[in-house]
Amino acid sequence: MMPMILCDAHADTLHRMATGDKKPFDLSLDRLKEGGVSLQVLAMFVGVDPDPHVVAGLYNNMWQAAEQLKQEGWLQAMDPQEAATDQPRFLLSVEGCEIFEPGLHVIDDYRKRGVRMAAITWNYGNALGTPACINQDDGLKPYGLKAAKHMQSLGMALDVSHLNIPGFYDLLGKTDAPPLASHSCARALCDHPRNLTDQQLRDLFAAGGYVGINFLPLFLTPGGTDCTIDTVIDHIDHMHQLGGEGMVGFGSDFDGISEKPEGLDNPSDFPKLITRLIERGYSPADVEAIAGLNFLAYYKRI
């Protein structure tokens, strides 16, 4: 098969670099090249109790990590449409908008520095919203809605991964562009609060959103057992049945997950997933769309 655009909407490599993690990384430039990855979204997130001093320090470290990657030969994309088959590029995102709590001026600064996606929360609440793991009662907070609209005005995608259902519908119904779920799966196939219900998926696709399938087995199969490449494709199949054709792709969560589906250990294994999509009956055009063109088309819609 000819080279194709392949986009992965989520990885936690910068966080691991910023915290001095010494365990082997999933991502490397060589593995991205071997796997044919054109665009890798790298998330900046704190992952601990959001003390303002801790947040600021870790973000400073993550910016330094991004600069280190560039010194090592990685290319930063300032726009998703820069994705190409010649060389992997990384695109920056924020996971947990507590870094934006001081005011909209921080959003402006991050956008100028290349951040093109922001998840409202991680697994703890902030001044913008509440995650699914805390409760399903509270929607976006007033500043959360204000910040969300401001981010959209700058061409940033709003990520509903980790966000609770009321917050999801606030983004869907009270803002000006469809959100995406960068690394989420279908709750009908795996009943986990981090996954999206069929109704959420129908509504997201009807609005023109996007979902990147997370590779964490715990989100793919009940109990995370018997998880394979086919399991990932099962979630793609299910979302297509709900109106998601043209709006589904990959959001691996590499470097943020300790377990993986059998055969998908790191980005160099993406060709196995592409091959299996074809074996499962997807046309070459469908495979190209799922691999990366759907992600780029989403950004054109917003």
The ordered H/E elements are EHHEHEEHEHEHEHEHHEHH
Which CATH top level class fits?
Alpha Beta
Mean pLDDT: 96
Shape: globular
What is the makeup of the main sheet? 6 strands, parallel
User: How large, in whole angstroms, is the Cα Rg?
Assistant: 18 Å
Key features of this structure:
302 residues; globular; 3-stranded parallel sheet; alpha/beta
Describe this structure in words.
The chain has eleven helices and nine strands. With 302 residues, it is an alpha/beta fold. It has one domain (7-301): TIM Barrel. The model has no long low-confidence stretch (mean pLDDT 96).
Topology record:
Layout lengths: L6 E2 L4 H6 L10 H7 L3 E6 L7 H20 L3 E2 L12 E7 L8 H9 L2 E5 L22 H12 L3 E3 L5 H10 L5 E5 L13 H9 L3 E4 L3 H4 L8 H16 L3 E3 L19 H10 L4 H18 L1
Parallel strand pairs: 1-2, 2-4, 3-4, 4-5, 5-6, 7-8, 8-9
Helix pairs in contact: 7-9
Can you give me a brief rundown of this structure?
This protein is α/β, with parallel strands linked by helices and 302 residues long.
